[in-house]
Design a protein that fits this description.
The chain is mostly helical. It has three helices and no strands. α2 (21-45) crosses α3 (53-71).
Length: 85
């Protein structure tokens, strides 16, 4: 009984993971729209011309900076220690 339930759950998970190229492109496009909405005004204030390569680079750099700040908080090793070794 457990094996059947496990197989059904695994099959459902595999089927939901499948996406057409159009669906993946739409997902990437929504990610880009979110980046532009969140970091676009900051890059505009920094003086970059909108929709130029330096402006896009600014978007990516600000996004990466926030991602690193969010995911690199070192809570596992105590507040005082910065490095593990």
């Amino acid at each position: 009984m457990r094996a059947i339930a496990f197989c059904c759950i695994a099959a459902a998970a595999l089927l939901t993971a499948c996406a057409t190229p159009e669906q993946r492109a739409a997902s990437h496009l929504s990610d880009v729209d979110q980046l532009v909405a969140e970091y676009g005004p900051a890059c505009d204030k920094l003086g970059y011309a909108r929709n130029s390569d330096p402006w896009r680079n600014c978007l990516l750099q600000l996004s990466t900076k926030d991602d690193l700040a969010r995911y690199n908080n070192n809570v596992y090793f105590g507040a005082r220690s910065r490095w593990y070794w």
